[in-house]
Batch of 2 targets.
Target 1
Amino acid sequence: MKKLLISLTLLISIAEAYDFNPQMQKYMNDLKTEAKKANPEFKGFDYSRGEKIFTSKHVGKRGKLISCVTCHTSDFSKNGENISTGKVIDPLSPTTNADRFVKVKDVKKWLRRNFKDVYVREGSAQEKGDVVIYIVNKK
Ligand code: HEC
């Protein structure tokens, strides 16, 4: 049991192991604090919850069924397309695109807008953290 717990803890820390720059790390820590305040059971951000947030479809802001995949695709090393404007979106993966998850201001702005596009509401701190952990760690 103890071994299992240790490997689980290891798995969780690996899932969150992406090396953010200091301002992004602070943002992620702030989200964590907020998530814990909202839910005392909160243990840490989770890749699979993030995957579900990113890939599940909802009736979005424009009354059509969409997901985050609709604009960003599910291959973050490739370009996406903004279905509202037809403009190309650069890859979301920080491995392919060095501009990703660098500026907190951009990440905040787009998470706010994009959650509204898909979920017609803002994401909670936990949802934002989960989805970021999914995007930066997705292979
Ligand atoms: C209607 C199209 C659209 C949808 C749907 C969409 N996005 Fe975006 N997203 C964009 C655009 C446009 C940008 C900004 C352009 C850019 O950064 O290349 C962006 C940027 C981002 C960024 C900024 C990353 C950075 O560091 O620059 C993140 C994170 C992001 N989106 C996550 C999401 C998530 C999570 C969802 C689902 C809740 C989602 N997006 C759904 C169009 C979309």
Note: The first helix runs from residue 2 to 15.
Target 2
Amino acid sequence: MKIHRPTSLLVLSILLLADDEAGKIMRPADKSSHKSGTVDIVATAPSGKLELDGKPLEVAQPFPNVFHGEMKVAPGAHSLVLKWEGGRKEVRFFSGPNAPAEFTAFQQHPPIAGIECTQCHELTARARFRFKGGCFDCHKTDGFEKVHTHPSGMLEECGMCHNAHGSTVKAHLLHTKETACKLCHQ
Ligand code: HEC
Ligand code: HEC
Ligand code: HEC
Ligand code: HEC
């Protein structure tokens, strides 16, 4: 059989891209430190499996294919791996005090105890887990336009630019402001 290389490579890279997007570790953030020794995990992948330092980790799935659990982790550096068919993600984090310089303090969001996932998420009629909004139950809309250059209706996919589960960087930004604006502005 004759294979057109460029085509098969293109198809392969599209498949790989699709796979790479299928699994996500929303928290903890990569290279984050957790002084209290308690780490809250949020992740998703189709039929995914989690491993802590190479050993299988049982974490509850409150929604289909969505992992969530809070746990005490022994002091020191750790690796959390999410595996699914055709993909893998890894984050490294530090538990306990005196984290080495390569780790930055994790700021969980919202920084309020007892906020449910359903503050911002819902299951659709077809059991798809999705973001529904809910940020402005706590944040003021006035002032949004000044910071964002656009009214909130135009930037309603907050997850384009923010990790709403927490992060190690200012304003929980996923990219620099410049890159974030370039998502739409060439
Ligand atoms: C303050 C609002 C907020 C809360 C609370 C919240 N999330 Fe999210 N979550 C988001 C946003 C925003 C996104 C990005 C949505 C997007 O890009 O489509 C997201 C994305 C996700 C994703 C990735 C979905 C995907 O397929 O890309 C998962 C999984 C997830 N959240 C799980 C949880 C779990 C579990 C909880 C509760 C422990 C939770 N979230 C609490 C706002 C929140
Ligand atoms: C295009 C990227 C982008 C999107 C989409 C986006 N933001 Fe932002 N957001 C930013 C940037 C950039 C900052 C400024 C960070 C800084 O202070 O340098 C910011 C700052 C914030 C802040 C801190 C504001 C302050 O007063 O300092 C909040 C709260 C916030 N965003 C909420 C939201 C909410 C809620 C949504 C969805 C409705 C959203 N953002 C969508 C890029 C975005
Ligand atoms: C249950 C209340 C609550 C909800 C819902 C909520 N936040 Fe927050 N958020 C807070 C609090 C409290 C803070 C810390 C105080 C502050 O900076 O305003 C904060 C901080 C932030 C910051 C960091 C501000 C900074 O200057 O570092 C961003 C960005 C942010 N939230 C975005 C969002 C986005 C996006 C959503 C929806 C996906 C959301 N928040 C939903 C309560 C909430
Ligand atoms: C979700 C896509 C999207 C994102 C992200 C986005 N913009 Fe825009 N922006 C638009 C669209 C569409 C227009 C043109 C429509 C309008 O003027 O309302 C526009 C118009 C503008 C304009 C008016 C001037 C012009 O070129 O027409 C400015 C200034 C601007 N954006 C700045 C920003 C900045 C700064 C950011 C990052 C904080 C950003 N935008 C992020 C979609 C986006």
Note: The longest strand covers residues 76-84.
